[in-house]
């Protein structure tokens, strides 16, 4: 069976050129980047090249890049680090209701410690209104954290306006760019971003490597204690091979960004149009907002999303009901309920995220597999038949 992978927002395959760049640092070039001898100097040079490549992807300076284990660590470091370094007994964080759990759970932990957190609502397409941010800012606001692109919908937030509002109020602005880095143009200076999280495995680098951009002069408390690596922000021996892979992936993404976006968005749109035409009642969530080029989220009334994911997997197609880290959750997606979907519709929604190596033939095959699977599940659903009769 030829398997189709439409779950690139969960993770991506390692690009062959990325693996090739990494291999020497998993074998003969094994030095510790903190050692001063030749082995260490070669490792250090590779780390600094990776730092330059990641910085170039987002318009930052190399010294503003801190390597981490991935998006979750970067989000935690940015949020905890800013709040703990903030002056004053009363502190507030402003975020949105549709953030990734790496941000939401961090904010909830802060609430338990006495920090006030404001969760801004979003519209039916998942976009927050910058006016609501202005209204939420207080004298004690320490941080605004708003993700660039949503992992379930692909919805892109107006970062330039958000960054301008935060800068005018002299408040730090962090964005979780895990789903946008390598897919959308990012300029941390034009967007007035102070901290930005990214994760390698979302754009064809390996798992377990990410980065946190920290604008020069930002007051950030370190979370880990140990040696003096990375200016003390993140102690611990650097993951040289992972950093090399992240850097190479960033270089490839930067050079192919426009070309990839045009081709991938055309595939996404064709998949979307085909499903709307072939599946009665299907609806796209977040369709009227700017989105990442690879992501579509559709509701198929009358089915259970988890059951459809399993049915499609048995037919050779991989997709998801939402965030991979929330798989198996009993509650409906907090993102979909935040945009106004009923619980049953949220549970009947699937995310399809195509990628750099997705082909026209795979989209054509998916347009045969998905409608058939939906129809078969609906035939087994007394709820769907009741809905149909009622209409």
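^ Assign residues to that structure.
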């Amino acid at each position: 069976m030829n398997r189709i992978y439409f779950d690139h927002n969960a993770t991506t395959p390692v690009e062959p050129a990325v693996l090739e760049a990494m291999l020497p640092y998993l074998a003969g070039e094994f030095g510790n980047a903190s050692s001063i001898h030749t082995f260490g100097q070669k490792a250090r040079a590779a780390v600094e090249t990776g730092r330059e490549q990641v910085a170039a992807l987002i318009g930052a300076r190399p010294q503003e890049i801190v390597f981490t284990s991935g998006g979750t660590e970067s989000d935690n470091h940015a949020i905890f680090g800013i709040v703990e370094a903030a002056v004053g007994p009363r502190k507030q964080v402003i975020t949105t209701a549709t953030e990734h759990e790496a941000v939401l759970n961090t904010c909830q932990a802060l609430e338990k410690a006495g920090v006030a957190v404001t969760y801004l609502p979003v519209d039916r397409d998942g976009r927050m209104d910058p006016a609501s941010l202005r209204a939420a800012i207080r004298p004690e606001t320490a941080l605004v954290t708003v993700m660039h692109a949503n992992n379930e919908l692909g919805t892109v937030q107006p970062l330039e306006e958000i960054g301008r509002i935060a800068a005018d109020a002299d408040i730090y602005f962090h964005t979780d760019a895990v789903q946008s880095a390598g897919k959308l143009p990012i300029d941390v200076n034009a967007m007035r971003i102070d901290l930005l999280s990214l994760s390698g495995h979302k754009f064809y680098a390996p798992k377990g490597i990410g980065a946190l951009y920290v604008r020069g002069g930002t007051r950030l408390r370190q979370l880990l204690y140990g040696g003096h690596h990375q200016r003390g922000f993140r102690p611990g021996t650097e993951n040289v091979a992972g950093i090399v892979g992240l850097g190479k992936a960033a270089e490839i993404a930067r050079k192919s960004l426009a070309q990839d976006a045009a081709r991938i968005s055309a595939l996404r749109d064709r998949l979307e149009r085909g499903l709307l035409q072939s599946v009665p009642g299907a609806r796209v969530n977040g369709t009227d907002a700017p989105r990442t080029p690879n992501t579509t989220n559709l509701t198929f009334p009358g089915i259970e999303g988890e059951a459809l994911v399993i049915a499609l997997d048995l037919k050779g197609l991989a997709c998801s009901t939402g965030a991979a880290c929330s798989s198996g959750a009993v509650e409906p997606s907090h993102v979909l309920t935040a945009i106004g979907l009923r619980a049953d519709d949220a549970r009947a929604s699937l995310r399809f995220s195509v990628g750099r190596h997705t082909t026209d033939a795979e989209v054509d095959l998916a347009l045969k597999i998905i409608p058939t699977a939906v129809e078969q599940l609906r035939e087994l659903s007394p709820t769907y038949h009741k809905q149909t009769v009622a209409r």
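The chain has a mean pLDDT of 94.
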